[in-house]
Amino acid sequence: MLKLLKLSFLPKSPDYGLLILRVALGFSMLLLHGRGKMLGFAATAEKMNGLLGLPGNVNAGLAVFAEVVCSALLIAGLFTRFAALMLAITMGTAFFFVHKSALVGASSGELAMVYLIAYVTLLFTGAGKISVDRE
Predict the structure, then answer these.
(1) Nearest CA to 25 among 134, 125, 102, 106?
(2) Backbone angles phi, psi at 8, to 5 degrees
(3) Which residues, including other chains, have CB under 8 Å from residue 94's CB and lie 6 or more apart?
């Protein structure tokens, strides 16, 4: 029974875990967030005008770079720690400045916080062996 509860019959592989984490985070960020910002760049820039004292097109460009380019890098496992850092900065900005650290309510930043935690995890762990980086 203890063996069943510990799931010790399953092989332990941090590299497979990191692969699943990278690919799931990368595709979800790219397809659910970055793609829309990229395709609707003008509207995105308008909504992000003045955030952190930067013009909207700069903020939107940085967000698209992180959410599209860095997500693709994350999926491949190429420059993973750099990509995770850029995405963590983007999600930190979203959580602390856009959602004002709210975890409940109409403008909840719960998802941004979850992404932030996952990207910081990848920043510290790296891509693992199943990646282009092959750490």
Answers:
(1) 125
(2) -70, -10
(3) 109, 112
Which of these, 100, 30, 105, lies nearest to 65 by C-alpha position? Answer: 30
Mean pLDDT of successive 10-residue stretches along the chain, which has 135 residues = 83 93 98 97 92 92 98 97 98 95 94 98 96 86
- Dihedral angle, C-alpha 72, 75, 76, 81, nearest 10 °: 90
Residue 118 CA to residue 15 CA, distance in Å, equals 15
3-state secondary structure 16-63: HHHHHHHHHHHHHHHHHHHHHHHHCHHHHHHHCCCHHHCCHHHHHHHH
15: phi then psi, degrees, rounded to nearest 5: -65, -40
Residue in 120, 111, 68, 132 with CA at minimum distance from that of residue 89: 120
How much helix, strand and coil, in percent to the nearest 5, is found in the chain? 70, 0, 30
What does the alpha-carbon distance between residue 121 and residue 103 come to, in Å, rounded to a whole number? 20
Round to the nearest angstrom and report the end-to-end CA distance of the chain. Answer: 36
